[in-house]
Amino acid sequence: MLRFLTAGESHGQALVVTVEGLPAGLEVTVEDLQAELARRRLGYGRGPRMRFEADEVTIIGGVRHGRTLGSPVAVQIGNSEWKRSDKWHAEMSTAPGRTEKPLTQVRPGHADLAGMQKYGFTDARDVLERASARETAARVVAGTLAKRLLTPLGVRIGSHVVQLGSARVPAGVRPGPDDLDAVDASEVRCFDGAAADAMIAEIKAKSKAGDSLGGIVEVLVWGAPVGLGSHVHWDRRLDGLLAGALMSIQAIKGVEIGDGFTVAGLPGSEAHDALYWDGRNYVRDTTRAGGIEGGISTGGVIVAHVAMKPLATLNRPTLATVDVITKEAGVSFKERTDVTAVPAMGVVAEAMTALVLANEATRKFGGDSIVEFTRNAEAAARALAEGPLA
Fold first, then answer.
1. 370 part of a folded domain
2. Which domain holds residue 170?
3. What's the rounded Cα separation, in Å, for the pair 183 and 108?
4. Domain for residue 82, yes or no?
């Protein structure tokens, strides 16, 4: 089983992630991790923090001479802002004490009030620092390791923005696995030039108004082997695992596998992926089921759509709120924010998808080393090709 755990706060000294279950011999470097973290900082409409934030990556354990040891891999992502600001040294100190300026005007749309009520806090910062999407940097590190594990199986994972605000990519426009660099080259990680221009125009308008934008990202997986996930238990179904992992990303309010919401309004004769035999394999020429049937990967392209709400922290705060101490009405306070983080969210969605698929791959193929893991996967592929249904 592959699992990971993150720790740390947005303005704290560092984030930490520990990944357990990686086989020995997997090649990984700090540069690999930094490259994916740099992708997370992409996107027109990001705030100033993305321009000066440098992810200071240190592999603490589980790797020797560029290869995993089979033990847990621990990675620290230092917060460069912490070094430059005495404010955060004081505000986020782990030593006994208290802040001189507690945040009591909670922000609608955030975890502030619900978290304060749950844990009995009187300072919203006790909640918001951990609830912040900064935590996703640690997830991207874990997801990078998962991607490395899936690479020998021929699995490629990518994402692209299909909607930002009201601007939307035309139906049927979808990158292939060789187009991922072109997606990242787009200022909004959009594969359609005209739609990208419309998205940028919307961002500029909302930036001038001090408002924010949400959107939808399509996550694509090519080369996933047949048989990941299972129909036998509710918590083994691959589509359920993916939906839960993607929904766990901060500000995500909707997840769709394949054409889930569209096919809900179609007759059965138009809602499924017809099967064909091409002389070697079973193939489907549509992705309505998103590459998953009965909770099991089919070997086709896995497709998920992830919907992100507009960010609740605004550059020009207008949302009504209440001071939890005085009960006086007011408007929500402002933390440094983005106009939109949808392009970056796609990179996080890739990471969560990779972690789910890597976990199911280790469950199916096993192996204490990357050599054994790959050998088992190759043997499973041969057995499928030579089996009674071949």
1. yes
2. 103-386
3. 33
4. no
Instruction: Give Dmax over CA atoms of the chain in angstroms.
Output: 73
Task: Quickly list H helices, 25-76.
Answer: 30-40, 49-52
Measure the CA–CA gap between 141 and 75, rounded to whole angstroms. Answer: 8
| Residues in contact with 190: Cβ distance below 8 Å, sequence separation at least 6, in sequence order | 160, 161, 162, 164, 169, 183, 196, 199, 343
Q: What is the CATH number of the domain that holds 119?
A: 3.60.150.10
Q: Got the DSSP string for 158-197?
A: EEEEEEETTEEPPTT----GGGHHHHHHSTT--S-HHHHH
Structural domain contains residue 80 = no
Is position 21 within any domain? no
pLDDT digits (tens, 9 = 90+) for 300-348: 999 999 999 999 888 888 889 999 999 999 988 776 678 999 999 999 9
Number of domains in the chain: 1
Q: With left for phi above 0 and alpha for psi between -120 and 50, is residue 94 left, alpha or beta?
A: alpha
- The 10s digit of each residue's pLDDT in 112-152 is 999 999 999 999 999 999 999 999 999 999 999 999 999 99
